[in-house]
Amino acid sequence: MTLTGKTQAQLDTDAQAIQLAQTIATNQAYLNSTDWHAGYSVETGQPIDATVKQNRASARQAIAAARQALAKLGAS
After folding, report:
1. CA distance 20 to 69
2. Are 47 and 75 in contact (CB under 8 A)?
3. What is the dihedral of CA 26, 27, 28, 33, to 10 degrees?
4. Per-domain residue ranges for the chain?
5. Measured on CA atoms in the order 58, 59, 64, 65, is the torsion positive or negative?
6. Residues 61, 62, 65, 67: is their CA dihedral positive or negative?
7. What's the pLDDT at 5?
8. Closest CA to 20 of 62, 76, 75
9. How many Cα atoms sit within 13 Å of 26 on the Cβ side?
10. CA quadruple 26, 48, 45, 64: dihedral positive or negative?
11. Which of 1, 17, 68, 74 is deepest in the core (most CB within 10 A)?
């Protein structure tokens, strides 16, 4: 066992920050992998698939919520 010099609350905050960062990374990776849909839609005038459009909106919301939660963790 290694002692870190951190309290349990600090360790919990660190774990939450890691989880939030992973949420951001996962959702950003999804957005990056589906960016071509937006370009294709602009070029062709064809609408983006409704499921992809909804999933992209959900990913953006998840990223915003995770960033907000991270900011609150940093402020506490």
Report:
1. 8
2. no
3. 90
4. 20-75
5. positive
6. negative
7. 86
8. 62
9. 11
10. negative
11. 17
The residue whose two tokens read 């900011």 is 71
CA angle 42, 45, 50 (to 5 degrees): 90
- At residue 2, the pLDDT reads 60
Q: Are 46 and 40 in contact (CB under 8 A)?
A: yes
Residue keyed to tokens 């992209």:
56
Tens digit of each residue's pLDDT (9 = 90 or more) over 46-62: 999 999 999 999 999 99
Average pLDDT of the residues in 25-34: 98
Q: Is the pLDDT of residue 1 over 70?
A: no
**pLDDT (mean) for 23-32:** 98
Q: Which token pair is 17?
A: 């920050």
